Amino acid sequence: MTLAEAYLNVAKNLPTDPTIKARLDRAYDIVRSDGSGYSIQLPLGKDSPYIVYKASTSLLEDTSHYYYVTSSTCDCPDFRSARAGLCKHRLAIMMLEAMER
Known about the structure:
The protein is 42% helix and 10% strand. By secondary structure, it is mainly alpha-helical. The protein has one domain.
């Protein structure tokens, strides 16, 4: 499955909400990028989390921080306040996993 197909596949299962749509677009950028400030490290084992480096739209912001992400959790600040815990990091992992199917 291509990234565009994965994006559409994930999008069709999300609540209709402009905030979630904006996060999905940022998640797409995280998965799409290759060295442009975003990075995802794949899990080391079956029960290990993904490591997703902090995404930023500012060149001045520190992007060396990372978050531990699974299909159901993320330790970023947005996870706690995002509807259904759908932060951009979890959405990025959802797209990656859809591409692997």
